[in-house]
Design a protein that fits this description.
Layout: E1 2-5, E2 19-25, E3 33-41, H1 46-52, H2 55-64, E4 70-74, H3 79-96, H4 103-114, E5 118-124, E6 130-139, E7 142-150, H5 161-181, E8 186-188, H6 196-203, E9 208-218, H7 221-233
Parallel strand pairs: 1-2, 7-8
Antiparallel strand pairs: 2-9, 3-8, 3-9, 4-5, 5-6, 6-7
Length: 234
Amino acid sequence: MQHFYFVEKPANVRKSMKVIGYTHSLVPSRKLVKSETVHIHLTESALSLYLALSESNRKILRRAQKEAYQVFIYKEPSEENLRAFQQFYNNFAKRKKLESISKSQMEAIMLLNNQGALWLSEIRSICGQTLCYRLDIVHAKKAMSYYVATCHSQTTLDYLKRPIRYANHFLLWHNLLHLKEQGFVLYDMGRLMDDQNIREFKLSFGGQVVNVYSGYIAHSKISALLLGVQKWRK
């Protein structure tokens, strides 16, 4: 199967491919699922990116600057790094009543990692407790938010409750600046959800709301049948 990420014009599909996968393509297609995302153009100056933030977000980041965070970026995460992330995320998902990262989904994550298409970032408190993880897909100097998980403030000591509130904002802002320094041109915030809190969080980082298209296109009847069975099973 051939898979394309963030394409801006019709992809050059190999004739031998029976199934073509697309993630956040900008090319409209009735065969793919349409959704909204936010694109942050990292070619803008750091000052322009900062001024594009919402006022409340700038206020949070100013407060976060006073916290003694430790940030770790794994450009080539090890299997141990990713297993630790999976465990952290699944605890988060259970608490939030979200779908956990299953064995098959973890296999897909490992495959992406083997292709050099993942960046994992982690933020810890001054005492070394992990507060937040972010897992991004990276391809052709573009990045997209893939998974995000934060720890539970109710299970931590009182003096860590404020750092936890700011951790996700701080880590994402840190990552945007780091990606910019590394020559990346675009950050895709991931699909805009119906959840108002998540939607507001993503919109608070500025950027442009755009329509994107994702899914699979079968180029044979057998492949189409197999895709239909897979969708039915889900």
